[in-house]
Amino acid sequence: MWAFIHKLGSPKWFYGISARLSPWFWAAAALLIVVGSVWGLAFAPADYQQGNSFRIIYVHVPAAFLAQSIFVSMAIAGFVFMVWKIKVADMAAAMMAPLGAAMTFVALFSGAVWGVPTWGTWWMWDARLTSMLILLFLYFGVIALRGAFSSRDSASRAASVLAMVGVINIPIIKYSVDWWYTLHQPATFSVTSRPAMPVEMWVPLLIMVLGFYCFFIAVTLMRTRSEILRRESNKRWVRELAGEVT
Amino acid sequence: MAFESLSAFLAMGGHGPYVWAAYGATAALLLGVTLHARAERRALLRDLRRRARREQRRGASTPDSHQEGHARES
């Protein structure tokens, strides 16, 4: 187990293994997202109350899931970096932040657009909406903090700490719909009970969620590989790699 | 199919603008992220190659050169 973790922590080993894994995640992401979108847009039945605006769920929910999962992943990576000094974890965390911010934006935007026909407003200071907005600012904070230090090690440590502290917002987002039930509807999916939706509605949603997760993994692998090249550009194996590609 | 015609599909029962705005923004962002990641990787590889060539030219005889790989490390 320890040997495995240390191997995983070696940028060179990570660079190799991720090259083999990433095409599968790209392919799975593309396939799942295309199938899920077509299914959700054209084949799933319209909601009896919301009509066709409900189809926004197929981009809104996966984006919101990802927005939160990416923050948790970033906090875990920050923890791994702080405790075991594994540099790859920090590189991955640095690459996750902009994607997380983008996903939070997608969740907020699609939610706002969905709110107009459904709630009659695109924004309200509802607990769920507000805590998601805070998540967006936390992502901005992590990104800005990383850019604010001239020493990379200080920047990495500061960003890791902010991610670990900021992760407290995640359970707040999750339970906001139960604690302060003002506008946003409660969760569609839960681990313990059956979805409150017919099968032909939630299967495409599940496909989209999986597709978004594959997309996250694919992008993170690819960008972490780029970050390895950037940070390790003076290492012998990177120079040899560059020589080979010529 | 939940729709009878293409125009009904595009209209989304009057919710067309909302549905298409949400999907359009999502698609644009996913595509943008993908293209950015690809451009970033290509630019880095290009820089590394350029640097490797420059070093090769500058000192073909130094132990640092790539021409003979690891064999020269002694």
Largest sheet of chain A: none
How many β strands of chain A by DSSP? 0
Inertia-based shape of chain A = globular
Low-confidence stretches of chain A: none
Query: What is the helix content of chain B?
Result: 55-70%
Return the structural class of chain B. mainly alpha
Helix fraction of chain A, binned, reads: over 70%
Task: State the order of secondary-structure elements of chain A, H for helix, E for strand.
Answer: HHHHHHHHH
Proportion of residues in extended strands of chain B: under 5%
Number of helices of chain B: 2
Backbone shape of chain B: rod-shaped
Query: Roughly how many Å apart are the termini of chain A?
Result: 37 Å
* Weakly predicted, low-confidence segments of chain B: 65-74
Topology, number of strands of chain B: 0
The assembly state of the depicted protein chains is heterodimer
Write down the domain tally of chain A. 1
How many domains would you count in the coordinates of chain B? 1
Task: Walk me through this protein's architecture.
The complex is a heterodimer of chains A (246) and B (74). Chain A is an all-alpha fold. In chain A, 78% of the residues lie in helices and 0% in strands. Chain A is built from nine helices and no strands. The longest helix of chain A is centred in the first third of the chain and has 33 residues, at 11-43. The mean pLDDT of chain A is 89. Chain B has one domain. The interface between A and B is large, with 43 and 36 residues.
Give a short synopsis of this structure.
Chain A has 246 residues and is mainly alpha-helical.
